[in-house]
Specification:
globular, about 15% strand, 10 helices, about 45% helix, two-stranded antiparallel sheet, seven-stranded mixed sheet, alpha/beta
């Protein structure tokens, strides 16, 4: 059966096809002006609506939580799923603050613990790879981080071309540089120039340059890039995670000491270690993690898909990677 060709999207971003996206961006910019406490309340409401409207995302979250938290009851996972969507809704307002508010500290407070670990890594002269995760607060946390320390980010393009254009334009105002996640040479170059590179490896990018390692006890196609980058450049790998305070007063950004004896002699063990670091961080505030991402889309050979309609099995040759 012949596959349907994807419809080519217009190059002109002002084409009527993109008007809904521009309307959404305009609304987001207006919402940035609201008081922070109101943004939190509206964000939770928006998140609950998103959860109800997007069946596929709701199914993805349910499948992820069932696989990663089998010790929780169905009712407990339902509560966590609702909290995750509420956190996602708040993240929309946090993005608006990061992009359009000249001084975010006028809206909410933040604290960075462990900046000395970044400074120590830079003194070594081989760059610092900030190893993080896809937590909902990433956009605003990044804005806070660059108020203390210049950072280059590794980014994944947005599916929406208008959002992609706006995101790149706004981020360019405060990040030192932005590197496409597939541009390994660009990342290596930045580290060799002794820059701080913010990187989140917890994505399913298929089996290319990935190995299957446990994430919450579930085999996950996990990028080996953290180990390879550290080996190529000698960069310090410094875990960095960020959380929204439960009392609504602001954010905590935690920079941990660099991983010792990393990279090791075994890239598989290095990748297992990175997944464990991320898992431990996510467990502190699991509702703030991007469970909306199909982290386990690629499955080991012979294992059934985790998500409805998911059809990305691994090839037999990658089975024991």
């Amino acid at each position: 059966m012949q596959k349907k060709k994807k419809r080519k999207r217009p190059a002109n971003l002002h084409h009527p096809l993109y008007w809904p996206s521009w309307l959404g961006v305009g609304l987001l910019r207006l919402l940035a002006a609201l008081p922070y406490s109101l943004q939190l309340r509206l964000g939770r409401l928006v998140g609950r609506l998103l959860g109800r409207m997007h069946r596929k995302r709701r199914e993805t979250v349910a499948a992820n939580l069932a696989a990663c938290f089998p010790e929780l009851s169905v009712a407990e996972r339902a509560v966590l799923a609702r909290q995750s969507f509420e956190s996602l809704g708040i993240a929309l307002f946090e993005t608006a603050i990061a992009w359009w508010i000249p001084d975010p500290t006028a809206r909410c407070m933040y604290r960075i613990a462990g900046l000395e670990h970044i400074h120590a890594g830079l003194q070594r002269g081989h760059g610092v790879l900030l190893c993080s995760a896809h937590l909902h607060t990433a956009e605003l946390a990044g804005r806070f981080m660059v108020m203390e320390q210049p950072v280059t980010i590794v980014y994944r393009p947005q599916n929406d071309r208008v959002i992609e254009a706006i995101a790149n334009r706004r981020r360019a105002r405060y990040y030192g540089d932005m590197i496409h996640y597939r541009d390994m040479r660009g990342i290596v170059r930045a580290l060799l120039h002794n820059e701080v590179v913010w990187y989140a490896p917890d994505i399913d990018a298929g089996t290319k340059r990935s190995v299957f390692t446990p994430f919450f006890g579930v085999p996950a196609a996990s990028l080996t890039a953290t180990s390879r980058l550290a080996r190529l450049t000698g960069a310090s790998v410094v875990p960095c995670f960020y959380y929204r305070r439960s009392d609504g007063t602001g954010y905590e950004i935690v920079v941990d000491p660099p991983l010792s004896n990393f990279p090791g002699s075994d890239m598989l063990q290095d990748t297992i270690r990175i997944n464990r670091v991320i898992e431990d961080a996510v467990r502190l505030h699991p509702e703030q993690y991007l469970w909306q991402h199909r982290r386990f889309k690629t499955r080991p050979h012979g294992e059934a898909p985790l998500y409805p309609g998911s059809v990305r099995p691994a090839s037999p040759s990658r089975r024991d990677s």
